[in-house]
Design goal:
The chain has 322 residues and is of the alpha/beta class. It is 37% helix and 17% strand. The protein is built from 13 helices and 12 strands. The chain has helices spanning 15-25, 44-58, 81-84, 107-117, 131-139, 172-176, 178-186, 196-199, 206-215, 217-226, 228-236, 247-255, 302-313, and strands spanning 5-11, 30-37, 63-65, 122-126, 149-153, 191-194, 203-204, 243-244, 260-265, 267-269, 279-281, 294-300. It has an 8-stranded mixed β-sheet, with helices on both faces. A two-stranded antiparallel ribbon has the order 7-8. A two-stranded antiparallel sheet has the order 10-11. Strand 1 (5-11), helix 1 (15-25) and strand 2 form a beta-alpha-beta unit. Helix 1 packs parallel to helix 2. It is globular, with a radius of gyration of 18 Å. The two termini are 29 Å apart. The structure holds beta-D-ribofuranose and calcium ion. Beta-D-ribofuranose is lined by residues 14, 16-17, 41, 83, 127-128, 153, 165, 171-173, 246-247. The site of beta-D-ribofuranose (BDR) has 14 residues, from helix 1 and helix 6.
Length: 322
């Protein structure tokens, strides 16, 4: 096998974050260097506890690094308990102690040190509010030149009619810290944005989830359990059977970028007013922009994403005892 892909996973677990981490954990070509936590789907204590629980359950060698509990401007958002449950993992029963401790270093310090230790080699995969990445950039602007790439789940650019999910304009991760997102998109590192334009094109249906539960051993069963509240939420929004694939789509984009069609443009975020949290392509190609050109996913091979997820999580019959 060639060189492993070094990845830092920045996350707010979260049902779909948990599912994304399961996929990463099942990728032999990935060397997961660390799991950084951020507020979002729960308060920072909750998302960090969930990351520790998942790290233990998945047997990850990587440490868990606690990150930001509030947006850069100090805003502490109320967690979306109607989407992910009160414990952000679908209200399943969790062990009283997660079974391992958080790493001594904070998330953004870990990001800075790790990028400096492996210049040009590390992919940052961010599937929550972008506060940790912005804090890392603020404290060490040189890291923008050290990252191999940054893949972000967030935003919505109106393709296929997909705009916001927390407001008519804004997607949740960007809305939670629009200033951080704007700074991350303005930095001179190569960012790929996996927004609602593509994540709302891919749905895990009940039959698909049942197939995972059948074929993927303990993880398939855990996915079924943690996703009951999540699926009920999406039923209420009109997704008749199943739920959109947000964070795992970003993992798929990292592993198999050919599954996505993209456009290239500078990107900015509205940081105030009625449209706060809206992501937009900067003025027409050709017009001057001080910002770097980034990559925005606008098309997806949904069947390919679903197959990739299912295939990576499948436990070979010889290992399943049956
Ligand atoms: C994003 O918001 C969170 O609820 C999900 O985990 C995902 O990262 C989707 O808008
Ligand atoms: Ca998330």
């Amino acid at each position: 096998m060639g060189t492993l892909k070094k990845v830092i996973f920045d996350t707010d677990p979260g049902v779909d974050d948990a599912m994304a981490l399961m996929l990463l954990a099942r990728c032999a070509e990935v060397e997961l260097l660390g799991v950084c936590t951020v507020f979002g789907n729960g308060h920072i204590d909750t998302t960090t506890r969930n990351a520790l629980f998942l790290a233990e359950r998945l047997g990850l060698a990587a440490g868990v690094y606690r990150g930001a509990g509030a947006a850069l401007d100090g805003t502490v958002h109320a967690p979306p308990v109607h989407v992910h449950g009160r414990n952000a993992l679908g209200d399943i029963e969790l062990p009283p102690q997660p079974g391992r401790d958080v790493a001594p270093q904070g998330a953004h310090e870990f990001i800075v040190d790790t990028l400096r230790r492996h210049p040009g080699e590390v992919s940052l995969l961010a599937v929550g509010p972008l506060t940790n990445l912005a804090l890392a950039l603020r404290s060490a602007p040189d890291i923008a030149e050290l990252a191999r790439e940054v893949v972000v789940m967030g935003g919505a650019f109106g393709h296929h009619g997909h705009s916001g999910n927390v407001s008519p304009f804004a997607e949740a991760n960007i809305y939670c810290d629009p200033v951080a997102a704007d700074e991350v998109f303005a930095a001179r590192w190569p960012v790929t944005i996996v927004g609602l334009d593509v994540t709302h094109q891919t749905v895990m249906s009940t039959p698909y989830l049942r197939a995972l539960a059948r074929e993927s051993g303990e993880l398939g069963a855990l996915i079924w359990e943690i996703s009951r509240v999540y699926q009920a939420f999406y039923r209420g929004t009109g997704v008749t059977d199943g739920f959109y694939v947000h964070d795992a789509s970003a993992v798929a984009c990292l592993l198999a970028p050919a599954l996505f069609g993209t456009v290239r443009s500078p990107v900015a975020v509205d940081t105030q007013g009625e449209t706060v949290g809206r992501t937009r392509l900067e003025p027409a190609p050709g017009a001057a922009s001080a910002r770097p050109v980034q990559t925005v996913c606008v098309e997806v091979d949904s069947a390919g994403v679903l197959e990739l997820y299912r295939e990576r999580l499948r436990v070979p019959a010889s290992d399943s005892g049956g």
